[in-house]
């Protein structure tokens, strides 16, 4: 009779994640298959092919993510010029990386240029607007690098919300990042006309 060996807590915390990742680098096809088999994981792929597996968001961050998405989604429904996406949506950027942000918005005219097959995959398009919300486990430098990559690949406006320091880093195409200290609202015009992100329930 075979005895099932239950891993100890220390063994679980020291699992080498590489055993679950078949290659250090993955082609587009391999990455799609890996994501299909691991739908519960948050996975991104760098332009060089390396794969990054991230843990699920903590509950408080998920709550704040939703509050941001609600604000953007409500504005987008009234505005009617674009589509809003949550943190589960991945996009293939022009440099070949696959990224997901906490909230993304794409102009309808650009989104509708994609085929149904492209929309049903990691759509080959860079969003026009993204929001990244820093969690307690996130490196600020990593998120800043991610926002820089978004800018280089075509976003018009990006917000990096750092709850720990109560700052919002505003990224605009062709401009240096602007850091707002504990703002009550963040004006997203003219990229998102008449939209301001209210920060009270996000802090």
Short description:
The protein is α+β, with helices and mostly antiparallel strands. Helices cover 29% and strands 24% of the residues. The chain has helices at residues 9-13, 28-37, 59-79, 108-111, 116-119, 140-153; strands at 42-45, 51-54, 82-85, 91-92, 98-99, 103-107, 129-134, 157-162, 167-172, 178-181, 185-187, 196-198.
Question: What's the topology here?
Answer:
Layout: H1 9-13, H2 28-37, E1 42-45, E2 51-54, H3 59-79, E3 82-85, E4 91-92, E5 98-99, E6 103-107, H4 108-111, H5 116-119, E7 129-134, H6 140-153, E8 157-162, E9 167-172, E10 178-181, E11 185-187, E12 196-198
Parallel strand pairs: 7-8
Antiparallel strand pairs: 1-2, 3-6, 4-5, 6-7, 8-9, 9-10, 11-12
Write structural notes for this entry.
With 203 residues, this protein is of the alpha+beta class. The protein folds into two domains: 9-54, no CATH class; 59-198, Alpha-Beta Complex (tt1808, chain A), CATH 3.90.1570.10. The chain is built from six helices and twelve strands. The protein has helices spanning 9-13, 28-37, 59-79, 108-111, 116-119, 140-153; strands spanning 42-45, 51-54, 82-85, 91-92, 98-99, 103-107, 129-134, 157-162, 167-172, 178-181, 185-187, 196-198. Strands 3-6-7-8-9-10 form a six-stranded mixed β-sheet, with helices on both faces. Strands 1-2 form a two-stranded antiparallel sheet. A hairpin with a 5-residue loop joins β9 (167-172) and β10. The longest helix has 21 residues, at 59-79. The protein is globular. Mean pLDDT is 85; it is low at 1-23.
């Amino acid at each position: 009779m075979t005895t099932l060996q239950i891993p100890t807590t220390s063994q679980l915390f020291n699992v080498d994640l590489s055993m679950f990742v078949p290659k250090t680098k993955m082609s587009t096809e391999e990455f799609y298959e890996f994501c299909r088999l691991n739908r519960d994981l948050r996975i991104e792929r760098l332009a060089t092919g390396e794969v990054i597996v991230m843990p699920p968001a903590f509950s408080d961050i998920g709550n704040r993510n939703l509050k941001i998405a609600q604000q953007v989604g409500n504005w987008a429904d009234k505005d009617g010029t674009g589509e809003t996406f949550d943190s589960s949506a991945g996009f293939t950027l022009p440099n070949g990386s696959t990224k997901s942000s906490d909230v993304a918005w794409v102009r309808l005219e650009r989104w509708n240029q994609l085929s149904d097959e492209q929309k049903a995959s990691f759509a080959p398009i860079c969003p026009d607007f993204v929001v990244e919300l820093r969690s307690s486990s996130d490196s600020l430098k990593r998120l800043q690098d991610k926002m820089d990559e978004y800018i280089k690949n075509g976003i018009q406006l990006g917000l990096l919300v750092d709850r720990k320091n109560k700052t919002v880093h505003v990224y605009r195409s062709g401009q240096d990042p602007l850091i707002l200290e504990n703002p009550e609202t963040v004006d997203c015009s003219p990229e998102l006309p008449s939209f301001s992100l209210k920060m009270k329930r996000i802090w």
